[in-house]
Amino acid sequence: MPKSSASEDDSATLNITIDRALKDSPDLAAAYDKEPQTKELIDTAKKLEGLVRNSGVHAAGVVISPIPLPIWCRCIAPRTTKLSPLTT
Question: What is the spatial distance between Cα 73 and Cα 70, in angstroms, rounded to a whole number?
């Protein structure tokens, strides 16, 4: 990836939006304008920017496993529950 106009060691520049990065980096802006794959990637990233990242809570089910489930997958229960998240 092209080097930005900001110092790579300047950690304050890491917490910026994609639009700000396009404004601050002429190389990135040029790639966005000239390269269809770069434009598609950045447009997709803009749609995802700011979305909450978590695993969410979904409907329950029964899973039968030969080994404890946390070895196979991440198991989560609300912190307010009084029940064990897993019944074995």
Answer: 5
